[in-house]
Amino acid sequence: MRIAVIGGGPGGLYFAALVKQVAPGHEVVLWERGEAEDAIGFGVVFSDGALGGVQAADPVLFDSVIDRFVRWESVGVRYRGRTISHDGYRFSAVGRRSLLRLLRERCAHRGVELRFASAAPPLPVLRSEFDLVVAADGVGSATRSSRPEAFGTRLEPRDSRYLWMGTDRMFDELTFAVVETPHGPLQVHAYPYAPGHSTFIVETTDRVLRAGGLEQPGRSPEDTARAVAALLEADEGLLGGHRLICTGSRWGRFTSVRNDRWSDGNAVLLGDAAHTTHFSIGSGTKLAMEDAVALAMALTDNRDLPDALAAYEAERKPAVERMQRVAEVSRDWFEHVDERIGLPPGEFTSHLLTRSGRISHRDLPLLDRDHVERVRNWFALTLATTS
Questions:
Q1: Across the chain, where does the E strand assignment appear?
Q2: H or E element, residue 385
Q3: pTM of the predicted model, to two decimals?
Q4: Which of 134, 138, 188, 322 is the most buried (most CB within 10 A)?
Q5: Plot region of 286 (φ>0 → left; ψ -120 to 50 → alpha; else → beta)
Q6: pLDDT tens digit string along 38-85?
């Protein structure tokens, strides 16, 4: 079988490596319009157990990835100068560039033909020259956009805006922060992914962007980072003097992507081209890699191509739709965070952590780390003065 893959993100690369692993005789060619090292992004996060499918499908890749993981077991909510943390979670994160580099190495080792800095040929050409075309070309998929009626595409651009940045402050947990600026609230989603490095996503509204002068034509990434950092100084403890890093990313608008059908003839969608979930639940890369496993396995199950593509969709679509429903609730909570500003910190934190319905208020033994630190300091001072 000749297989064309469009897109050099985690989903496309992982599928290409897997299908060559289980069917070495297949010819697999992958196109990516960007250079191999041009990937934008800082870290990607996985909940505990999220890479179980990766471990089963490719133990060598799994071992390479976990060697680079940063792990933590709590979620913190920073609001009005206080951080309230909830233990009992287990997360891991890895640098996106490190993950992509490992995936490229697996592809090269298995004989995938990688064509970076090269746009894929038009879909009709690929359809005629290859047995299967896998569109892993992201939320703005040109493949999907060329055939929206065939895929039954439904796009829903949202009101909120976001900027994916990094920082040289290493957070010690997944941290949600709300900073009240003179122009309106900024929300932060931050987590560590390598020693001395954290992902730092800022979310807000068009109104705050305009009022704060955060989005201006021609502004350099460095100036954008400085402008955001200046507004975040309203909470002195959030960055603690550390810098923000913005390397080419721009203010985006989250778009909900759904498709009634994931395949059209010999073309099939994978990852964000097929579906999106809001970044507040951190599942985009996980879902794309799970798609890759399911599609590779379906193609090697002695089915003809239409049956294999139908089996892939039947397995993945229900699981993805469940995650999308959870993500929608989470997304709506953050889009309307101003309705909860003013609540006491404990109540605000409880609202945030139970927003998706996956945990209840009874599951929240909250730990206020600032309060614990104050108590520790008090005991230390008491012991010092009485000894």
A1: 2-6, 27-32, 43-47, 70-79, 82-95, 113-116, 132-135, 153-167, 174-181, 184-194, 197-204, 244-245, 252-259, 263-264, 267-269, 366-368
A2: helix 369-386
A3: 0.89
A4: 134
A5: alpha
A6: 767 799 988 766 667 777 888 888 888 888 999 999 999 999 999 999
Q: Are 221 and 249 in contact (CB under 8 A)?
A: yes
- Looking at CATH, the fold of the domain delimited by 2-42+52-69+95-156+255-334 is given as FAD/NAD(P)-binding domain (3.50.50)
| Cα dihedral sign, 247-253-76-339 | positive
- The predicted pLDDT at position 36 comes to 83
Euclidean distance between CA atoms 128 and 42, whole angstroms: 37
Question: Which tens digits make up the pLDDT trace of 160-200?
Answer: 899 999 999 999 999 999 999 999 999 999 999 999 999 99
Which among 153, 160, 357, 145 is positioned nearest to 275, based on CA atoms? 153
* Element spanning 377, H or E: helix 369-386
Residue 326 CB neighbours (<10 A): 17
What are the residue ranges spanned by the domains of the chain? 2-42+52-69+95-156+255-334
The single-letter DSSP state of residue 247 is: S
**Burial letters 258-276, b for 16+ CB under 10 A, else e:** bbebbbbebbbbbbbbbbb
* 215 vs 257: CA distance, rounded Å: 25
Using one digit for the tens of pLDDT, what is the confidence trace for 122-147? Answer: 999 999 999 999 999 999 999 999 99
